[in-house]
Amino acid sequence: MQQLAVAKARVSTWRGLERRTRDVGELLDLAIAEDDPSLEAGARGEIEALEKALHDREFQLQLSGDYDERSAILAVHAGAGGTESQDWAEMLLRMYLRWAERRGFATDVLDVTPGEEAGIKSATIEITGAYAYGYLSSERGVHRLVRQSPFDASHSRHTSFAKVEVMPEVEPGAGIEINPDDVRVDVFRSSGAGGQNVQKNSTAVRLTHLPTGIVVTCQNERSQGRNRESAMKVLEARLLEIELEKQEEEKARLKGQHVDMSWGNQIRSYVLHPYKMVKDHRTSFETSDTTSVLDGDLDGFMEAYLKARVGENA
Hints:
Helices cover 45% and strands 24% of the residues. The chain has helices at 2-34, 37-61, 83-103, 132-136, 196-200, 224-255, 290-294, 299-313, and strands spanning 72-78, 106-114, 120-128, 141-148, 157-168, 183-188, 204-209, 214-218, 266-271, 277-280, 286-287.
């Protein structure tokens, strides 16, 4: 049903563009016949809007992967460095929530582990919307921050790292089967906010997938059942991501390429001191408007990555 809805929306969009193109052609003919500058100005404005709409459609055509049109589950993990990296992880979480808001996507924070002094150690969020995974696949990897530390009295320059994981949401019947005997379920009291029900009752859920060692924790919901449902959704997405990574590694091996997503290989650097610059090391796309990027303006980076990905697969 979701695929049918996406297909219908795609057809509706193209038919709408066809209708608008026909209308603006008629408006141009009328402007010429009447020699009316106001009609000409209106037609020019509509042509510019059509050009932008077509550019957006061209960009979307690059999202042709098997799972690109799905919603996404995104996880942020602070690297070594204590409070500095935990604060950076929280900045990244805010950046992706702002990006989703710009896109009109719904977000649901499934789990957050706060830092001791500031920031977060890790967080997992669900981002629901058409092509959310396709867009966010560009964000998978290690992100590096260089800035003057707000936690250092001398304001010396610090470098912090955080890792971002992006997984496609698993649809029912997608072939990901989990044997209940392979999952250990632990329940405990939530450590976060949420009222007396959360603090007094064992509502938090931890799932351990014994064959792979994957551990998923969810504690943001008020009920144990909802947390278990969310945790299972994340576990399914992680198992699917493992399968996709195996496929990517095999493709890279056949092409003679080396794929390394370890902590020592950052995909993007965010420099706030001594100058301002955000640069993607895979595509060389960069901007000095660091404030906009950290407020969720990521489309330029995503577009550059998707274009490069299409070129690699050609």
